[in-house]
Fold each of these.
Amino acid sequence: MKKIAVLLSGCGVFDGTEIHEAVLTLLAITRAGAQYQCFAPDITQMHVVNHLTGEVNTDETRNVLVESARIARGEVLNASTLEVSQFDGLVIPGGFGAAKNLSNFATTGSNCHIQPIVENFIREFALAHKPVGFVCISPVMIPNIYGAGAIGTIGTDSETAHAFTEMGGKHKNVQVEDIVVDEVNKIVSTPAYMLATSILEAHIGIEKLVNKVLEMA
């Protein structure tokens, strides 16, 4: 049975992992007959957002690993403990946590860097030539990991696509239900809630992505 690592970035679309995307990822992996293990970095998230009002709570701090445990029902491991040989591939759901906690793309755009623990985590899969699926905004990390010419998508947002290109990546515009595959680097990406207007729309692309990652594994 194939086993897929799932890298989370907190809990909640505005300051962590997009919960629908995470759950759809875990469901798709399980429905395909594979297993998953959630991981998250043990770091402080950029800030805490009130998901009812959209306001930043400046008096509160939260930990990415602790918050990710909410999605994983407590079954989440510290990203620093990864043994890549135990896994066949990786999927990274989106949400602003990918651009605020896993990287700082939200504040620096194409000048962004990836949090060192996270960069090492993803790079282990890349070096082992194991497939990685990037969902929603998380593909902005692709150029920093895989270098110039790596192919991916965030959908059709021109500003984010331009930043992706500035970082050396090759961006492809696609619709919500589609995936983009970089066969050379074993990368799969899909827009999900960068374009989705419903959980069903997000599900279509995510399931295709998971199935392609498993196929490439």
Amino acid sequence: MPLQSSVRALKKPRLDDEVRFLRSWIEKPLHMGAVMPSGKILARTMAQYVDVDSSAPVVELGPGTGAITNALIEHGVDQKRLVLVEYNPGFCALLRDRYPQATVVQGDAYTLRDSLWDVLKVPAAAVVSGLPLVTKPMLTRLKLIRDAFAALAPGAPFVQFTYSVVPPIPKSLPGVSTEASERIWMNLPPARVWVYRKG
């Protein structure tokens, strides 16, 4: 195969994902965290906060076409540990095809307890979120992180990215420690990863 053809073949899945993402964003912009899938550097930054040595589940909220899911697997998270909570039925079908060993839950992450009630048998090692939190009212954000902490093992991370310059969830939550990555300028638009842990 000529070099140009092989390069085109490698780029095609990414282009297809971008088209799917853009179409979904046009149809329901407030349900999407971004216009395009997360960039590789952003996805890798999020994945680095997940413990690969644990056998506990890793819950991903709003995986879309799987950009962060890929980074989690490349980081060393066994696909069987992944619980992917996705609202869009088209993305769910795509995720089931791409990650046959993962558990794909078609559900609303903003009603996380309902979506996970019969799925998680043990506390999760991490919740990794690609949800558009800053588009939601603060009470909705606080309910989401409260529900995420209920699903997590003590001290396990809730990992969230945002394009905003302010944290998506206040840093002053009682009993919750917060850390942030450096701003990821190579992502379009630039983003930051926030990590919340409850003891």
